[in-house]
Design a protein that fits this description.
The chain has seven helices and 17 strands. The chain has about 350 residues and is α/β, with parallel strands linked by helices. The strands form three sheets. Strands 2-1-17-16-14-3-12-13-15 form a nine-stranded mixed β-sheet. Strands 5-6-7-10-9-8 form a six-stranded antiparallel barrel. A two-stranded parallel ribbon has the order 4-11. The radius of gyration is 21 Å and the shape is globular. GO terms for molecular function: S-adenosylmethionine:tRNA ribosyltransferase-isomerase activity. Transfers and isomerizes the ribose moiety from AdoMet to the 7-aminomethyl group of 7-deazaguanine (preQ1-tRNA) to give epoxyqueuosine (oQ-tRNA). It is found in: Cytoplasm.
Length: about 350
């Protein structure tokens, strides 16, 4: 597979800039891989395709307010800082992206907040855009280190904003984004972008799942910006994705493997879930416990081992998410479905509509 095979013309107006009024009000395109049939439904109809003891696997990662703006010492130049991950809690070290990168060098200080009370020093250049910052925070002398760290993160996050994707940056971050750019079951903090397929599930829909007997399994993959980096090689086998932290714990393993044994359907809710479970699968197709990192890059052709259903949003051209969806649904079928989606007015991106692929 070549990068150019995932090019398609996506007009900007097709990208959803706002969520639907209710989470499960989005549209749902259903692809039947075996027959080639395409159906057009509402997302709340998704349960019609599942029965008692089937399993949905969700990603319970929680997005933190990763984008903040500071001013460079002396010049006062406005600098965007995108927090990626905390490297060392005791020393307040963070891996970040800065923009514009050309203005920031080792030793520079950045000031945040209206009173510039939060200060960070650049101590390392890691990539052309990446930096390591040390935040200079003393806190209260009476506090123990754990309390001091908690207060520091509270103050840091208060300066940040919801990290909407670049394709949505044409608009200002709004109060609704704090809630809607987060799934209702977000629990484990660490993501800098939302696993979009999980956003469609409302409390009402989850309750209907429970009544119908559909099982819920939760894994964690802290979605990072690596999913959205531009691919700069035509040969996809030469592309390397950034590592992301994953946690697949015993409760999820037990639920999924029981469904495998009883031949019930297993549905991966989103590409992050699919990457996590394909990272931790055994040679006999069962899920195993794992806590660590993954840089798994899935593109056609690929043989999947755990889930036989996939829910995913409509993604952007050249994206790694589109490549995974094409691997699961079949390249020709999925790319044709994307054209149908544009013709039928489906909404693309994180706040867009969804696709259910049934592989049975």
């Amino acid at each position: 597979m070549k990068l150019s095979q995932f090019k398609f013309n996506l007009p900007k107006e097709k990208i959803a800039l706002h969520p639907t009024k209710f989470r499960d009000d989005s549209r749902l395109m259903v692809l039947h891989k075996k027959t080639g049939e395409i159906e057009h439904k509402a997302f709340k109809d998704i349960l019609d395709y599942f029965d008692d003891k089937d399993v949905f696997i969700f990603n319970n990662t929680k997005v933190f307010p990763a984008r903040l703006y500071g001013n460079k010492e002396k010049t006062g130049a406005r600098i965007e800082v995108f927090l990626l991950r905390e490297l060392n809690a005791e020393q307040r070290l963070w891996d970040v992206l800065v923009d514009p990168a050309r203005k920031i060098r080792i030793g520079n200080k950045l000031y945040f907040g209206e009173d510039e009370s939060m200060v960070a020093e650049v101590i390392d250049n890691t990539t052309s855009r990446g930096r390591t910052l040390r935040f200079l925070y003393d806190g209260d002398e009476s506090d123990d280190e754990e309390t001091k760290h908690r207060k520091f993160k509270e103050e840091l996050y208060a300066l940040g904003e919801t990290p909407l994707p670049r394709e949505m940056i044409d608009r200002e971050v709004e109060p609704e984004d704090e809630e809607r750019f987060q799934s209702i079951f977000a629990e484990v903090e660490g993501a800098v972008t939302a696993p979009s397929a999980n956003l469609h599930f409302s409390r009402e829909l989850m309750k209907r799942m429970e009544i119908k007997g559909i099982e819920k399994a939760f894994i964690t993959l802290h979605a990072g910006l690596g999913n959205f980096r531009e691919i700069d090689v035509e040969d996809l086998t030469k592309h390397k994705v950034d590592s992301e932290q994953i946690i697949v714990a015993e409760p999820a393993v037990d639920i999924v493997n029981q469904a495998k044994e009883t031949r019930n359907n297993i549905c991966a809710i989103g590409t992050t879930v699919m990457r996590a479970i394909e990272t931790t699968v055994t040679t006999d197709g069962l899920l195993k416990e794992y806590e660590g990192w993954t840089n798994k890059f899935i593109f056609p052709p690929y043989e999947f081992h755990v889930a036989n259903h996939l829910v995913s949003n409509f993604h952007l051209p050249y994206s790694t998410q589109l490549m995974l969806v094409a691997a699961f649904g079949g390249y020709d079928f999925v790319m044709n479905a994307y054209q149908v989606a544009m013709d039928e007015g489906y909404r693309f991106g994180t706040y867009g509509d969804a696709m259910l692929i049934i592989d049975k």
